[in-house]
Amino acid sequence: CSTPISFWTVEKFGRRPLLIWGAFGMMICQLIVAVVGVTVGFNHTHDIPNPAGGDPLSRSNNISAVNAQIAFIAIFIFFFASTWGPGAWVLIGEIFPLPIRSRGVALSTASNWLWNTIIAVITPYMVNKDEGNLRSSVFFIWFGLCTCAFVYSYFLVPETKGLSLEQVDRMMEETNPRTSAKWVPHETFATSVGHANGGKLDLEVVEDVERKGSVF
């Protein structure tokens, strides 16, 4: 239910702030979960008898700390679902130059699912008691990745709100991501096709249309 919020925020605040603050929020949540877990939370447990028999069950020494971890994991999900979850898909559809846009989006999508698969496969081995046994310490790794996302967003993600695809290409040529939000288009679409002089097309455009059969 958090994702629909982004439908409004991505146009109200823009792509760049959404990803920067989303990454920052996720980063803080992961750090809190990790610190609480290794100090007083999930990493500190004791065994209790299993009512059904068999192997004993693990019980946390501090239930409140574990509840706090769960709460911040839920907050993390909120940050992701309302920022990076939908926002990244919006951005990748806008930032690639027109000649390679389809290939860029395809590679981005493939990369997304590749890393989703890798994380889904390796995480159980990282946290299982008989394997990596990282338990809550694994959140330090996720914190590091969210930090990378924050730095990446701040230095490399441009602002594309309110721009056409052609204007995004021009903006990328004339400015850098950190100042992209201040970039203003120099001309309108009508001007670019010569349709701004009293509602009449320029002679060159008319001749071009007659030759190609289209204004494009």
From TrEMBL:
Coiled coil: none annotated. The chain crosses the membrane at residues 18-42, 70-92, 104-127, 139-157. It is found in: Membrane. Residues 1-161 form the Major facilitator superfamily (MFS) profile domain. The keyword Oxidoreductase does not apply. Keywords: Membrane, Sugar transport, Transmembrane, Transmembrane helix, Transport. GO terms for cellular component: membrane. InterPro entries: MFS_dom, MFS_sugar_transport-like, MFS_Sugar_Transporters, MFS_trans_sf, Sugar/inositol_transpt, Sugar_transporter_CS. Signal peptide: none annotated. The keyword Transport applies. One of its GO terms (molecular function) is carbohydrate:proton symporter activity. Belongs to the major facilitator superfamily. Sugar transporter (TC 2.A.1.1) family. PANTHER family: MSTA PROTEIN-RELATED, PLASTIDIC GLUCOSE TRANSPORTER 4. This is Glucose transporter rco-3. It comes from Aureobasidium melanogenum.
